[in-house]
């Protein structure tokens, strides 16, 4: 059995950091050590920022985004085209699309995908909220931007079926050859999707 070289407070810090995605036990130890070495410049402000976030962060009741205000900053932005809604699985997908800056639309966060094997059904996701938003009117396009997984496609089909008859255009993200990608390195599914989604030039 390995000897303990730190007190319980530091061990707890390491254990909590190890739960952050992308940090394993070794990375968590390095991160904890760095925070301890920079206690005044980094650890103190980080603890304060985390306390602030814990107290103030909330989920937007309109779209499912996380922010410190409800409705969130995206929903209250007058410069956005609120008639176009991009449907994403998670807040991280919303942030990724915003970093790309390709479209100035509204969003709707589902909170995951349908997965019967994992016990995730329609009632566990924010699908009803999306249907209610569309039913109120004023929405001309729904862009389904879910991952190209079996669960993502199942979710996309479910949403499409339940939006049928609501007089809204439904589109989805293109799938296929990535920019800079080489055909020889792509899997068969990606190549098939690229051929099916071919466009005129």
From TrEMBL:
GO molecular function, one term: zinc ion binding
Location of the Toprim domain: 83-178
Zinc-finger ranges (C4-type): 60-75
GO-annotated biological processes: DNA recombination; DNA repair
Pfam families, alphabetized: RecR_C (PF21175), RecR_HhH (PF21176), RecR_ZnF (PF02132), Toprim_4 (PF13662)
Keywords in alphabetical order: DNA damage, DNA recombination, DNA repair, Metal-binding, Zinc, Zinc-finger
Function: May play a role in DNA repair. It seems to be involved in an RecBC-independent recombinational process of DNA repair. It may act with RecF and RecO.
HAMAP family, alphabetized: RecR
Sequence similarity: Belongs to the RecR family.
Protein's name according to its UniProt entry: Recombination protein RecR
Native species: Rhizobium terricola
């Amino acid at each position: 059995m390995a000897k303990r070289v730190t007190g319980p407070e530091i061990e707890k810090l390491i254990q909590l950091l190890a739960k952050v995605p992308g940090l394993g036990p070794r990375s968590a130890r390095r991160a904890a050590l760095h925070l301890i070495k920079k206690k005044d410049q980094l650890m103190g402000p980080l603890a304060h920022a985390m306390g602030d976030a814990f107290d103030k962060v909330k989920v937007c009741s309109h779209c499912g985004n996380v922010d410190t205000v409800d409705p969130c900053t995206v929903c209250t932005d007058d410069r956005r085209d609120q008639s176009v809604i991009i449907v994403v699985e998670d807040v991280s997908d919303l942030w990724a699309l915003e970093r790309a800056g390709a479209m100035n639309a509204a969003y709707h966060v589902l909170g995951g995908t349908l997965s019967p094997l994992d016990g995730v059904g329609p009632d566990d996701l924010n699908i009803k909220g999306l249907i209610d938003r569309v039913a109120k009117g004023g929405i001309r396009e729904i862009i389904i931007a879910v991952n190209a997984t079996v669960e993502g496609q199942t979710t996309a089909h479910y949403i499409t079926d339940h939006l049928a008859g609501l007089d809204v255009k439904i589109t989805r993200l293109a799938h296929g050859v990535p920019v800079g990608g080489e055909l020889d390195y792509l899997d068969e599914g990606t190549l098939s999707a690229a051929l099916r989604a071919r466009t005129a030039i």
